[in-house]
Amino acid sequence: MSLPTDSRIETVRSYFRKVDAKDPSLLDLFTDDVEFFFPKFGVARGKAAVMAFGSRIAKEAAKLTHDIDGLVFTAQGERIVAEGREWGETADGRPWPDGHVSQGRFANVFESDGPLIKRTFIYVDPDFTGEDRKRVALYRAQDAGATPDDVARRYVERVRDFWAAPHAPQKLAAILDLFAEDVDWDIPGDHARVSWIGPRRGRGQVGAFFRELVVCIEPRRFDVQRIVADADSAVILGELASWVKDTGRLIQTPFAFDLIVKDGRIVRLRMFEDSHAVARAARRPASS
Q1: Model pTM?
Q2: Burial bucket for residue 155 (CB in 10 Å: 0-12, 13-18, 19+)
Q3: Going from the N-terminus, what domains does the chain have, and what CATH number goes with each?
Q4: Average pLDDT of 55-83?
Q5: How many CB atoms lie within 10 A of CB 199?
Q6: Phi and psi dihedrals of 231, rounded to 5?
Q7: 258/268 Cα distance (integer angstroms)
Q8: Is 202 exposed, middle or buried (0-12, 13-18, 19+ CB in 10 A)?
Q9: CB count in 10 Å sphere of residue 249
Q10: How far apart are alpha carbons 247 and 174 in whole angstroms?
């Protein structure tokens, strides 16, 4: 039996109120075989599917609020479409939408079977915080720039190319092109004993680091074991061995490069290694 439109709209309003409140009685609004859709979750049937979706989205969206008073409804037969806006906070504390890339707009399609909802299809961009930068750049005709993973892999490749021809200026230029003009660089350690480590600022000082390194060491091994990246950073893990020319000693150490990337350039680099082993290898033997 078809219910009056106003009654079905009130059921939809109740749906949004219960979603925002994380009210378990939300399931009472659905038929047992309710059909449900959400982007990237897909189409599923049954109340258990709705519960599964709720538990999964809660891992990303810790808080969710719909502008219930501002909903716009379109009704046709047993179908009601609700258009509106939503906002919230991710599980790691980031508010959304930003009003620039993420807009918090949605449209839900509901179909009724008497007083219950038998179909709920949710049409919304699940990238709540606008992290899908490649598509944003594509649709806005912008340059997305290299991702942190791209930059990290290029860094490894260009460092290897540099050491194959350390006096070729184009090899060093290719490395420096990966860095922002005012890059924040640091290799912590005993700077009093190891001249090439320590903090540096700017692309020019990074270039000076590599030129000094050519004078001071000869690389024997540079093995990258793993690269881990997310939206803004990348970590390069591996092991290296280098011969210190001044002392004739060998540095052997694991390493980790911690990169922060913005607009396709490295804006911050930290290299972590066995600083004690480096200092020991760089220390001149005591004269007899």
Answers
A1: 0.56
A2: buried
A3: 5-131 (3.10.450.50), 148-282 (3.10.450.50)
A4: 94
A5: 12
A6: -65, -30
A7: 8
A8: middle
A9: 16
A10: 30
Helix H or strand E segment including 206: helix 203-216
Going by pLDDT thresholds of 50, 70 and 90, the confidence category of residue 142 is low
User: Which two structure tokens, joined as six digits, stand for 132?
Assistant: 């899908």
Angle between helical axes of 169-176 and 203-216 (0-180°, round to 10): 140
Residue labelled with tokens 């109740």: 14
Q: Which two tokens stand for residue 189?
A: 């350690």
Q: Compute CA 287 distance to the chain's CA centroid, rounded to the nearest angstrom.
A: 53
What is the per-residue pLDDT for 263?
A: 85
Beta-carbon neighbour count of residue 70 at 10 Å? 9
Cα distances from 153 to residues 149, 235, 239, in angstroms, run: 6, 10, 16
Q: How far apart are the first and last CA of the chain?
A: 103
More confident residue, 113 or 99: 113
Mean pLDDT for all residues in the chain: 92
CB 159 within 8 A of CB 171: no
